[in-house]
Model the fold of this input.
Amino acid sequence: EVQLVESGGALVQPGGSLRLSCAASGFTFSISTMNWVRQAPGKGLEWLSYINTVGTAIYYADSVKGRFTISRDNAEKSLYLQMNSLRVEDTAVYFCARGLSHFDYWGQGTLVTVS
Amino acid sequence: QSAPTQPASVSGSPGQSITISCTGTSSDVGGFKYVSWYQQHPGKAPKLIIHDVSNRPSGVSSRFSGSKSANTASLTISGLQAEDEADYYCASYTSSSTRVFGTGTTVTVL
Done:
């Protein structure tokens, strides 16, 4: 069974940093492209970042470019999101999702509150 | 990158068909075959229901279908059922190699 499990969400002050993790199981992580997507309370989905299988192709939404960094460890079957200079408007549930042109598997999300 | 526009809400009676539009630009929806649709129930993770404009993943009901014309993609739900009441989002690949979600549509079954 495919599983993606996010962790690392917490309450953090504006200007602070946080690192989210996404543990993958049930599929070959090393050949899967991955993404981070977030959803602010009561709002829609927002795509944040993409990383290819080896980390050589990385893209960000303008809203997080320069503040967030996506990375992966294929040996650990894990995806990461380093979030710096956090703002109140970054408060959201953060999902990791597998996919290139679409997102076929999603985690349940981890809540980040900036306040 | 602006989000493709979806109607905020669409409603229908059980058994009816409804269509949700997703209007973008030639730099996203209109420029690529990589349009997908997601269903999200409250408190749950999104679920992929259509990919590459009109393809249904295994296990997704055939009542869901997708299409695209120019800069507008559409999701049709036929034979509307109570369990279809949820939020629906389109998503597209973009000319900047990023991805973008639509504004989202709440479907209500009357």
User: Anything to note?
Assistant: The mean pLDDT of chain A is 98. Chain A has no helices and eleven strands. The interface with chain B takes residues 35, 37, 44-47, 50, 57, 59-62, 95, 97, 101-104, 106-109 of chain A (CB under 8 Å). The longest strand of chain A covers residues 18-25.
